[in-house]
Amino acid sequence: MLDGRPVDPAVGLAVMAKAPRAGTVKTRLCPPLRAVEAAELARCFLLDAVERSAAVAGVRPIVAYAPVEARLDFETLAPGFALVAQRGGDLGERQEALVEDILALGHEAALLIGTDSPTLPPETIDEAVSLVMAPNVDAVFGPTADGGYYLVGVRAPCPELFEAMPWSTSAVLSLTLDRARRLGLRAVCLPTWYDVDTGADLARLESDLRALAGPRPRHTRAFLARRALADPAFVRPTDHERHAPDGGRAAASRGR
């Protein structure tokens, strides 16, 4: 905050990321990937998330990184981004602390997003920026198909949304929305999307990217192309009609 006044832009948009080191990231993708491949894919997810966030209007782009000693890595991976070290134990503590840190920088609102949804459309983040600043909205969530969320946005600290949550379960979003209602918060949901956490998710991603036009997400596309050349069995014809390439946007619900 400068001279007691909010900084411009009003919204701090933080990409939460771990350093892409083999054996510490995307371990649920091993197999079908080897640990070094999973780390490279995590790096591609991060680079695509950085590119997508850098293009969002009306925000200050931030990378919230872990571990703390990886700062130099992220200076290279996210040039021009503000860097904030993650602090706290579980995901809830880290999200709660990050909201506090972003608001302490003078921003009026904090948006937190992960790196595991590389096909998430940029316009969805644009919508989140508008919603988190709307006077009739207190909290914004981006639901994932597995019952969690890929984005959360608030204008004030609300530790109750993050405390004692059964992370990595299908109950996370429903419990969070229930808490928001009990706290009197007006919560809205963005279109549902999907994270890439498992081998099945990776197969869905590859299928969806074949169906989607355009270069984005370019780093993820490049990884999959390299992987297919190295191991042709990695690419198998799949029925992508089972999964809408829009991540389920047509079926997405919005709630208050």
Characterization of the model:
There is one protein chain. This protein has one domain: Spore Coat Polysaccharide Biosynthesis Protein SpsA, Chain A (Alpha-Beta Complex), CATH 3.90.550.10. The protein has seven helices and seven strands; from the N terminus they run E-H-E-H-E-H-E-H-E-E-H-E-H-H. It has helices spanning 35-54, 71-77, 91-104, 122-132, 172-182, 199-211, 218-230; strands spanning 11-18, 59-66, 82-85, 109-113, 139-143, 149-154, 187-189. It has a seven-stranded mixed β-sheet, sandwiched between helices. The chain starts with 10 loop residues before the first strand and ends in a 26-residue tail after the last helix.
Coarse morphology: globular
Given this structure, which CATH class is correct?
Answer: Alpha Beta
- Please, how many helices? 7
Fraction of residues in β-strands: 15-25%
Question: What is the alpha-carbon Rg in Å?
Answer: 18 Å
Q: What is the CATH architecture annotation? A: Alpha-Beta Complex
Number of strands: 7
Q: Average the pLDDT over all residues and give the rounded result.
A: 90
**What is the fourth-level CATH superfamily?**
Spore Coat Polysaccharide Biosynthesis Protein SpsA, Chain A
Order of helices and strands: EHEHEHEHEEHEHH
Number of domains: 1
**Low confidence ranges:** 1-5, 237-242, 248-256
Q: Biggest sheet, in brief?
A: 7 strands, mixed
What level of helicity do the residues show?
25-40%
Structural class: alpha/beta
As for the CATH topology, it is Spore Coat Polysaccharide Biosynthesis Protein SpsA, Chain A
Strand order of the largest sheet: 3-2-1-4-6-5-7
